[in-house]
Design brief:
elongated, binds uridine-diphosphate-2(N-acetylglucosaminyl) butyric acid, 15 helices, four-stranded mixed β-sheet, alpha/beta, UDP-n-acetylglucosamine1-carboxyvinyl-transferase, Chain
């Protein structure tokens, strides 16, 4: 299993280009199931989750060519509407094929994703929404078996109010509604930019989607067979951008231009970083991050967009671990998303966990250590911590990292970090 070795203690300088958004590309790849013909996605990041989705689409019967940063999807002859456990367990977002499959082919058998490192992550909201559209849902031997009305018929439009905003739940039901008969209304939707991006693609395909990116979305479905293939360039990855912004702020003297990032998608992070004393300016499609003085302690509470993103909590906590004073970090989205904390303690951070809250007392320095990555964002946060220590840190089990950060060691190396991948390191 690969590891990343990093030796920090010097400021990052230069510019880094942001890749396409993983969490936008995944639902859009699944949306190709709604039409026949050849679709092209551009600005797709070269990541393991993209390869897993490509493998899943191939298993379902599509022709997929990954030629990063492009992915070409073509209709195959037969579709097998079944997502097996072996693929779903590698990536929870595989559940995004459920809505398109049952809407397009009248039935779907998709493995339940099971628990994951950051929390239980149920999919009850996806299933309730499909039931409201007339699906019958059975859970059998770890699989969701969904069937359209009257034994595989066309879904009907519905009014669905989510009990809580869910990103992939909103996306799954938007895709199902795009082929349902009539006009659906989804209320209390997730407002993440990736949901808005899926709305743009569904509109390109010929559905009529209004309000994607707000909490109420209306979707007028088209007849199956009437949605068109599409050609689309994916938006930049706001979480990757935010991760480099935190990395840039770790050392005094840091000065990094984060290129191709959408600042309006990062407002909560930008405001909190400014409150912490980091200078952030926009230059066209780029964000410049400069740190000259000390970091001040700032509290954050994660929340659905436009609140502070849970996917930036670990990286921001690392920044706070070297702030002046005490900051309180509250995680409200996932119940187990502080697994980076015990690893950070080994590097000398001073953090006390109390339920869903981490109380971080800033320290003057972090030490190098061997640490274990537990999930995608936790892995990135440990690398950022390593950038602040002049000793060597080895982050193990970086396969999590390869799911979501394209060429991170090359990109950080380009900013002057001393960083290398150790292929086949001890797990
Ligand atoms: N939830 C339910 N029932 C449901 C669906 C969700 O109770 O049917 C709960 C979840 O357990 C969680 C909350 O609702 O407590 C929000 O979860 P959400 O469904 O929004 O998360 P997700 O769609 O599974 C996406 C991203 C995550 C990101 C979250 C929150 C993708 C592919 N994944 O997950 O990204 O953390 O939204 O913003 O879009 C990552 O990239 O590292 C990552 C984990």
């Amino acid at each position: 299993m690969d590891a990343i070795r990093v030796r920090g203690g010097k400021p990052l300088k230069g510019s880094v280009r942001i890749s396409g958004a993983k969490n936008a590309a995944l639902p859009i790849l699944c949306a190709t199931l709604l039409s026949d013909g050849a679709s092209r996605l551009r600005n797709v990041p070269a990541l393991r989750d993209i390869d897993t989705t490509a493998a899943l689409l191939r298993f379902l019967g599509r022709g997929v060519r990954v030629d990063a940063p492009e992915v070409h999807v073509e209709a195959g002859c037969d579709v097998r509407p079944e997502a097996p456990y072996e693929l779903v367990k590698q990536m929870r977002a595989s559940v995004l094929v459920l809505g398109p499959l049952v809407a397009r082919f009248g039935r779907a058998k998709v493995s339940l994703p099971g628990g994951c490192a950051i929390g239980a992550r149920p999919i009850d909201q996806h299933l309730k929404g499909l039931e409201a559209m007339g699906c019958s849902i059975k859970l059998e031997r770890g699989y969701v078996i969904a069937e359209g009305p009257a034994g595989g018929g066309r879904l009907r439009a519905a009014e669905i109010c989510f009990d809580l905003p869910t990103v992939t739940g909103t996306e799954n039901l938007m895709m199902a509604a795009a082929l349902a008969k009539g006009r659906s209304t989804l209320v209390n939707c997730a407002r993440e930019p990736e949901v808005e991006e899926l709305g743009r693609v569904l509109n390109k395909m010929g559905a009529t989607v209004d309000g994607a990116g707000t909490d109420v979305i209306h979707i007028l479905g088209r007849d199956p067979g009437d949605l068109e293939p599409f050609d689309h360039a994916i938006i930049p990855d706001r979480i990757e951008a935010g991760t480099y912004m935190c990395a840039a702020a770790m050392m005094p003297g840091g000065d990094v231009l984060v290129e191709g990032a959408e600042v309006q998608d990062l407002e909560a992070l930008v405001m909190k970083m400014r409150a912490a004393g980091v200078e952030i300016t926009t230059e066209g499609q780029s964000i410049r991050v400069r740190r000259s003085g000390p970091i001040r302690a700032v509290n954050i509470t994660t929340a659905p967009h436009p609140g502070f993103p849970t996917d930036m909590q670990a990286q921001f906590l690392v920044l706070m671990s070297m702030a002046q004073g005490e900051s309180v970090i509250t995680e409200t989205i996932f119940e187990n998303r502080f697994m980076h904390v015990p690893e950070l303690l080994r590097m000398g951070a001073n953090v006390a966990l109390r339920g869903n809250t981490a109380v971080v007392e800033g320290v003057d320095r972090l030490y190098g250590a061997s640490v274990m990555a537990t999930d995608l964002r936790a892995s990135a946060s440990l690398i950022i911590a390593g950038l602040a220590s002049d000793e060597e840190t080895e982050v193990r089990r970086v396969y999590h990292l390869d799911r979501g950060y394209e060429r991170i060691e090359e990109k950080l190396g380009g900013l002057g970090a001393t960083i290398a991948r150790v292929v086949g390191a001890e797990a």
